[in-house]
Each structure stands twice: as structure tokens, then as C-alpha cells.
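for the writeup, i need someone to sanity check this before i put it in the appendix. the sequnce is what the collaborator sent (i think, or maybe the updated version? ugh). structure was predicted straight from it, no edits. if anything looks off just tell me and ill rerun, i have time this weekend
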Amino acid sequence: MASSAALILFMAAAIIGSSARCSASDTISAYSAISGSRTVVSRGGNFELGFFRPPGDTNHNNYYVGIWYKMSVSVRTPVWVANRAAPVSDPASSQLAIAADGNLVLINEAGKLVWSSNVGAATISSNGTVAVILDSGNLVLRRREVEDGEPLWQSFKYPTDTWLPGVRLGMDKITGHVQAVVSWKSYSDPAPGMFSLGIDPNGTSQFFISWNKTTVFWSSGEWNGDAYAGIPEMSSHDKYNFEFVSNKNASYFDYTLQDPTVISRLVMDVSGQARQIMWLPAADEWMTIWAEPHKLCDVYAVCGAFGVCNEKSQPFCSCPTGFHPSSVRDWEQGDYSQGCRRNRRNQCGSSADGKDGDAFLLAPGIFLPGNPTPAQASSAQDCGMACLRSCDCNAYSYGSRCSVWFGDLLNLQQLAVQDTEGMDDLYLRLSAMDVPLKGRKRTTVFISIGAVASILALSVVVFVLVRVFRRRQRSTRFMQAALEGGNLMPFAYSYVRRATKNFSAKLGGGSFGSVYKGTLPHGGAAIAVKKLEGLLCVGDKQFRNEVRTIGTIQHVNLVRLRGFSSHGRERLLVYDYMANGSLDRALFGSTTLSWRARFQIALGAARGLLYLHEGCRDCIIHCDIKPENILLDEDLVPKIADFGLAKLLGRDFSRVLTTFRGTIGYLAPEWISGVPITAKADVYSYGMVLLEIISGRRNARSWVTEEEQGRMSEYFPLVAARKVSEGEALVGLLDERLHDDDDVDVRELERACRVACWCVQDDEAHRPSMEQVVQALEGVVNTDVPPVPTSLQALTDNTGFATTDEIKQNTITMPQK
């Protein structure tokens, strides 16, 4: 009997194995289930389906069925999860299979159903079904004999945390089904989290990000036919085609990629930000293109209950005094949603006056949370007592009135000292044991002080010993973190020196030092190392400014700072290597850039500046935009670099007074006149660079027009401004090496010339913002004919070109506003 059963099992296994071998590698049929390490791969090799364990998961027993990138992406990146809230513990004995009723189902190691496509039996014919993974990343369930037509079920209708190109995110008006993307619970747990991105259920053409499906804290703004009002980045990137559709059956939003070789996705991140992310093959990592909301502290409950958000600190979430992280492991992975909890539980009700029960501790500089409850009190002491009477009261504040807060405190934000003037203080409720109280015996105080001093002294000794021990191991860890594309890292000087072969391959230099090419050990990633030289105080200031400015920002059109090294008097900045060098070498060298390449470089540089001015927490004024500071990668994608002279401008300020900085030839008039500058100073410099992109030569050169044959003519920006203003043909302004270029678009040339001339206007109020520059170059908005700037006329005086002193003397001083 036993031998007969074994024979039957053997024959069944042989039949199933034979069928599995006969089935397509992208297909799951009734006889080819997925189990263990077996996967199916789309025909073009783009996506793979199978069992996986989330990255960073310390629980080795949690496995999920998901779809991830197969080809070109070296990091396993799940884009869809079937059983996101119901993991299996043993993939070898679990199965993703076609059930008898035709549904795609997941059976766990105990033989229980944990997930199903859940298609009604009446919909599935008797011919049977198969599940196929497509090159778009879509998993479809269809009838076995019908390859075309509407699928019975598809994963694109049930996205998890990732919005892939081709997915329609919206609402079915007939069935009421809503397609939204929901964040993972944590970076190691794909269960549905607290944040979701979905269409407005009231029918407007906008998207919301909500917390706990109840609290909306961000809106995309209405659709204007090209982009959402609140996401200018959406229309400023030429790699995406976005579309909003609304009819009687559905309202949805989708997007496609113009270039099929580009790999991009939109993720509802654990942090509460919606992030558009692109894979960079050259860097072998993911790069965030844009994120909403821009400020992490604008995300509702981003630091969880009692967590305090401060974007100027790292990490940006912290716990107030008397609290600690609820989940240290999650905090170490960058997930702060679990918030903080008290070091000791409240002793609610154990003492009416709080001496032996609970007390309050001042939380200095904390912005008062929303939704307070007013209470009757004539003093701060009465206000605190009113809070103590309820076990659910967790904080109070007393100013013009008494306010108390019940339940968990969310959205706590730490303010700068100068921003707290006139703000009421917040007092958090803690166990009295965690609050220093008056009236303790002096001997107790002395004993406590002595104990604390002893502990501090011992801590210092231990810290020094540990630091000496770890310093020897730090270099290897830093290098490994950099190779994995981690955050900004401090590199050991010896490793950087070894990577650059003792700084032997010099790429170029500038006023603050030289740049050397290098290769990271063990990975081969090419780097460019800026070695700051000259006076130590100047170099150190530039070093700290560059690290502070771009160390925490990322954009496809900004050069990526990998890390830095500070060793004695040496200051090193480690960047990604740009294969095509700086724009000045490409423009003014022996090679010829096509018009298409030039226009895309101009557009990319404009987008990078737009991000600096409007996409960061503080407005960043670069202060030194010129071709030498625009680098080109192997695909000629422009990257703005060299932030050593940059200035941070808080969002509450419109201009900043700073010392003279920048490069003659690209300086706005307000620099020389001494008035406080704004981001419009960068706009002027960009206009000068755009003119050089058009002409292919330095602005300060001889220019001979047909009307001025035989004599030195005027400053080129003035010639260009006059031609644009007078409506003349602009082809004569184009680099003469491009006259035979059939790809020159006359309309693009006209837009570029007009934009450049608007950018170099005397009065900064007449110059466009970088957002308007991007929109004008893309043809989204039309541009009028600009006037000829008076300052350009003053620079030339029809006699040639001015010196630096003459520029300062002849520049018209702009009125201060």
C-alpha cells in the first residue's frame, strides 16, 4: 500500500515536472506552480516573479510573492507584492499556482489559502487559465487559449506601493474600485503602511497623500492639461508623458516613458513622500528625480507619536527628553513612524498633586501641535492640574489661555531659537521620576551630581578608547557604504589617496584647488576628487559650505557628492566622475555638440537650477553659474557642480546681503552695485551661459556681422539682444559649425535666444524665474520680444571689450527694493 502511494506520487511529480518544463518561462499554468527558488521571467527579461525576503528583514521566516526588476537593475527592487500582509514561512512548501476554479492562488506551508486573484467563477470559462508576467511588470490572469483581449485579472489594477508606467491610478466610477498606492509598513515589512497616494474621491482632477486613510496632508493641485499645479517637476522632465483622463466610466492618471530604455518608478515611500525614482546605469543605483512633499516635516506624523521633526538635524526625527524610540530597529533603518514612548509609564492617579505620580517637563522650542482642547484655568499651575485630572491628557500650554492635548501628540516640530519668540511653551507629561523636582534634599543633589560626574568621566574614557579602536576599521566600512550608494560618507584620506594613485591623474583646477580622477577599490566606480588648496581658512570655509549645501540634496541635474575627507590641513570632496568633463570643454573645444545635445543641456541645467531655487528646504543661490561648473556625464546629461560659493536663502527671506563672488562675464549687475542679491543673480548667469551654448564661443570675443565687415564689432550678448529685439533672423547667432546641422529646430533656437535675452535684463524684476525659464524652453508658455539691456550697451561702448575695472565703473546701479 505504501509502495503504491509512493509510485502514484512519483508519477504525479513526473507529470507536473514534465508540464513545467513544457510551459513557457513567463507563465504559470495548472501544472507549473511557483515554489521555493523557482521564478518566472517576462519574455524580454524585464521583470521576475517569485518568492523573496524583504531587504533588511531580520526575521528569516517571512517570505512574500512579488515582482521585481530582473534586467539592468542590480539591486533587487520589488514593485508589487501579492501577500503583503500575510507572509509565508517556508517557500519550499508553499505554492503560487492556478487553482481548480481558475484563480491564481497562494497556498502556505500549512496548506491554507493566504492570497487569491478572487475572480468570480462565472467569469472563468472551462478552458482553464494561465498567469503570465509581462515586460511591463504586469501580472495578468487570462484564459489559456486567448492571448489577446482584456485579462480576467491583472496586478496593474491592484498596485501596492509602486506606481509603474502604464498603471492607471484612479477610480472606477462603475464599480467604485479605487486604485491607490500604499506605502510599506516599514522598509523591511511590505504590509500596508500609514501613507497612501490616490485620486480625490470627490471627483476633482487632483491627487492626495493621506495618513491612515483619513488625514489628507498634501495635494497635487488641479490638472492643467500638462501637469499638476503643485508638481512643476512633472512637466519639466522630458522622459515622461503624463495624462489625466476623466469620463463616465473612470477617472485616472497614468504616465509612460518616452525612452523605453529608461527604468523609472513612482513609490509611496515609508517616509510619507511620493518619490519619482530613476535607475542610473552608470552609477548602478536609484536616483530620486522629485519628491512630494518637498519638506519631510510637512508629512503628517512623519516622526510618529511624540516624535519631534527637525529638518536641520540628522537624523531629522528625535525623541523629547523622557522619551525613547518605540522601535530602535526601525529608527536605525530610517523608519520613524512608530514614534516615541515614555521611559517610564505614567503613574496616572497615584497622586493628586503630581509629587508621587506624574509631572510636566518643558519641551523647549517645540511648535505647539494642532487641535488643542481649551480648559478653564487662571494660571499655568491650574492649567497643569487640569491636565493631571485626566489620564488621557499628555501635554498642556498656558499663554493667553489654557490648552491641553489628549492622546498621542503628532506633528511635533523643533523650531530655531529665533522662531520661538512670542510662542507659548509646551509641557509634556511624564512620570515624576523622570522630571527634576524642587525640594529634594541637598545631599541627594550632591550625590546625584557626583554620580553623574563619575559616569561622564568614565564615558569619556570609554569613548576615547572605542574611537581609537574603531578608527582603524572605519575606512573599510566607509568605502563599502559608498560602493553601495549610501548617504554622504566621510572617507579615510589614505583610501582617497590610493584611489587617485597619489593624486596623479589631474582633470583640471580652479581658484580653490585641483580635481583628480580616481577609482574606488573593490568596485571600480570612477570618482572625481576635488583637493582644496590655498589658505586654510578659505579652503575650510569653502569645504564646509559645499558639504553643507549639496550633502543632503539629490537631483538628476546636480552633481552627486559621494563623500568627503578631512585630514589635518587636507580637505577633499569626492564626487561621481563625469566622463565628458565640463561644458566649456565640450562647447569651446575641437569637438562639435549637435543642436539637439545643446538644447537638452540648456534645459537640464535650467531644471537643476529650478530645483536649487524652489525644490530644496532653503533656496540655494549657486552664485557661480558658468560652463566650467556644468559637468556632462557619459550621456551628456548636465550636472551643476561647484557649490563652494553658494548661499542659502531661507524661505522667509527674499534676498541676502553677501560679499562679492562669482566670475566676471557671468555676474549680474546687482553683484557689482552692492545691493542684496536674490536667486535672479543665477538667472542672469544662466542667460550668459545660454548665449554661449547657442554661439559655441565665449561671449567676450570678436563678432563680425554682415553690416560690420572689416572692423571689430560689439560684445556678443549685445549683438544677440539687438537681433532678437529687432526681429531679425537668428540663425546667424548660431554656432557656425551647426549651419549644416539638419536637426536644428528654428523654433527652439528662437525660444532659447529670447529666454537668454530675458535672463540678462538689467532689472532683476524683469528677469524670469527658473520655473518660467524651463516652461519657456519647453514651449509650455510663449515669450515676448525682450528689450535690449542697457548694461550690455555700457559694457561695450562700440569700442571692443571692457576690463574688470571698466565693468565695475560702467555697470548701472540698480535701485534697491
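The mean pLDDT is 79. The domain at 473-576 is CATH 3.30.200.20 (Phosphorylase Kinase; domain 1).
thx in advance!!
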